[in-house]
Amino acid sequence: MGKKPNVTPAPDNVVWRRGLRWVEGAQMQAHRFETVFFELQTALEDARMRALLIDSSENRASCMEQYDNDYELFDSRRPVKVPTPALLMQAMTELDLLIVAIRNVLRAQVRLPDQLKTSMADDDVLELLRNVAEHWDEDGGRSINTLTEKHPDVLVDGVSFTNKEIWIGGKVPLSRIRAWLPRVHHALVSSLEYAGELVRDDMASLVAGDDALSWPPGRLRYRYWRLPVVDVKDWPTTEMPPEVAHLIQERFRGLRERDVAD
């Protein structure tokens, strides 16, 4: 194999600005992972509750009758959620993507001036977990060996949790990551501004002059990933009408037909 070509590092200001995007990405993934992880735990608890009610002949009828009388069919207070493989796969994928985002934040932080660099305990654990996740199709490897040697207490493919906290790898609390990310954001913004660059507020309009317009007085500024989740009672509970499903399939087929490369 030939030698790898020399790689020229991007300018600091480019790395800092991209780092801001990865801070946002890490905050998004922390939110998404926590949400789906606890959703999975709720579904697991519902499954245990269903089994308990069925196996408990003495109280089964009265408990199930009380659930049926007090709550609507798909009320989330009933044990109706199912812990599916799809839900588990989403939770684990959200975790992998969170670790990737954190690794990219760490890469941006390395380029900060020394006086602005932040720190987070066990960041090396997250970096090693990211490397292991990246090489998921390999058995063993340097990263997994380093992780098990230096941090034998880390759960490589697992998490531990209470009803208030999640520990990634059983070691790094999610709240620690959430507290660290705003510090990195502040350091990145400060570095850019000190270098003479303008940094827009996260909720400013991308369109020049838009924020100066007086109408309409009420406008929405938001992070899409922070929009509230629809309550279970508002979930669709019936199959899609065949004619609607067919229309969606036809639209997708027409879209794919325009892709001449595939």
Topology:
Elements: H1 12-55, H2 60-70, H3 85-110, H4 123-134, H5 142-150, E1 159-161, E2 166-168, E3 172-173, H6 174-194, H7 242-257
Antiparallel strand pairs: 1-2, 2-3
Helix pairs in contact: 1-2, 1-3, 1-6, 3-4, 3-6, 4-5
Features:
mainly alpha, 262 residues
Report a brief summary of the structure.
By secondary structure, the protein is mostly helical. It is built from seven helices and three strands; from the N terminus they run αααααβββαα.
List SSEs in N-to-C order. HHHHHEEEHH
Count of separate DSSP helical elements: 7
Q: Report the radius of gyration as a whole number of Å.
A: 24 Å
Task: State the helical fraction.
Answer: 40-55%
How would you characterize the largest beta sheet? 3 strands, antiparallel
Order the strands across the largest sheet as they lie in space: 1-2-3
Mean pLDDT: 89
Low-confidence stretches: none
Strand content: under 5%
State the end-to-end CA separation.
32 Å
Q: What is the count of β-strands?
A: 3
Cα shape: globular
What structural class results from the helix and strand content?
A: mainly alpha
